[in-house]
Here is the input.
Amino acid sequence: MALTVSPSSILCSCSCNCNATPSHNNANSLSSHALHASYIRRAVELAGKSAGFTSPHPNFGCVIATPSGKVAGEGFLYAQGTRPAEVLAVEAAGQLSRQATAYLNMEPGDCHGDHSAVSALVQGGVERVVIGLRHPLQHLRGNAIRALRSQGLQVEVLGEDLNSKLIEEARKSCLLANAPLICRAASRVPFSVLKFAMTLDGKIAASSGHASWISSKTSRNRVFELRGTSDAIIVGGNTARRDNPRLTARHGGGHMPMRIVMTQTLDLPEEANLWDTSDVSTIVVTQRGARRSFQKFLASKGIEVVEFDILNPREVMEYFHDRGYLSILWECGGTLSAAAISSGVIHKVFAFVAPKIIGGKNAPSPVGELGMVEMTQALDLIDVCYEQVGPDMLVSGFLQPIPDLTPVIPSVDETYEIDPTVTPYESRIIFFYKTWDPYGAFSNFSPHPIKMLDVDGDYSTWMSVEHYYQAHKFVGVDDPVARDCVENIKSAKSPEEAARIGRSMQRQHPYLVRSDWESVKIDVMYRALKCKFSIYPHLNSMLLSTAGSVLVEASPHDLFWGGGRDGEGLNYLGRLLMQLRSEFLGESPTLSESSCLGV
Here is the structure.
């Protein structure tokens, strides 16, 4: 996309601090706002380019525009742990980034100490930055904006420094681009989408239960796209029994969402497509104590079973929030969908309406009993969209609005200035998990490359600790497939992809895993972590700043490296970090490790 406009349209007479002169009129202001809105919408479009290839993550896009109105560079964040959109856009623009304007759909913010996005804009000579919205996470909110302004860049935020109908529409597109992150931050549950296909008379199956196929192939392909942009797909026990679904994205590679079955009784068949975990894993959530023998059967199949004292959608979604999920797609029947809506966890609805009539007094509908007796009680969708998909009509809309980010929530620094007694991130136990968390730099997925000695005595660069760890499951195995696997992991574009390749190969081809892996994996992780926290001073300082606190990787499902859901995990990642912290505190100021180099 290449946009070119008159230089005069860059200036305006609004209250946006953009060097306006008294002679400019409303037409110039509208023209300027149209330009800003156009570039921001392009940044939003770029932000979604990684959809379906990586696990959902905050979506960032950046457009660099010259004073003459030409797009000089663009970039988007591919996945957590990869190079920021701003870095890619400035590199693409080259010298044209000098005196240019950068348009960002959202304020930069990721891992602690990773200032590459801000540094790229400053070092690239960008003079002005227009931001769609502040970062929704409180510990990141406003940090990049203050950093840019402290370096002399002019920073404007839509809805704060720029206001008009066009600007508001552009800002809304920014909210939609990161709706999962915003909703998750505000409500502490993942962003949940209820999807169903129904006939024109509102049936999701015939009276017999037969439901293949209501919607067209074109609509089903759209569903595969929705799945590919979700962290997980959830169905109820009835759907698992009746339809025997696979719940795969079927896009020929890339991110595959987790499959979740929610069943109170655990009355499920022993033969089911969902028990085939060769390509993607399955989690079964159930009532505590349900069918212990069947739980053991599922465990033998590699199925994870999670028990709840009270099984309801709110409890389940809070659990998956803690597990780090951003987006859940519900493809369940009417009983579970009604429970999810009643629990307030459904944010958006996608309804595919097929031009068919099936009838049937007992034919099921997409939503079961909600306890409403008058039409005035009906739930209205917000921001409804209509789209023809093949012969079907797709109706989509929000059941609850995306939380607005205004008024501005103070950042940690701002809060401390208001009230020095408020220190929200100081505690005896420090949890870390996702890279965008306050202590996200402790994650193996953080964007900190390391250089390590390989088996030939040479130094090799690894994009992240996760790349190094996953590859070393197969290092030294005398098999061409294992050697190819090591190279594939090493060249993976993101830590998420490196983890997916390593875990998949270990699950599908366990004979390729080195025979001593269980005895050496802790040492492999230790070496990589020591390198990472030795060569990055800000990470070392961050680790040392936690002295006296217990470090816990807040993974509720990894009972070896993480702390587990109820503290039952071994937390070896936290243990290693605490061990390193102790070693660093007892060492001289010069920290080094013979097996690693700075990068």
In short: Residues 26-47 form the longest helix (22 residues). The longest strand covers residues 191-199. The two ends are 35 Å apart (CA to CA).
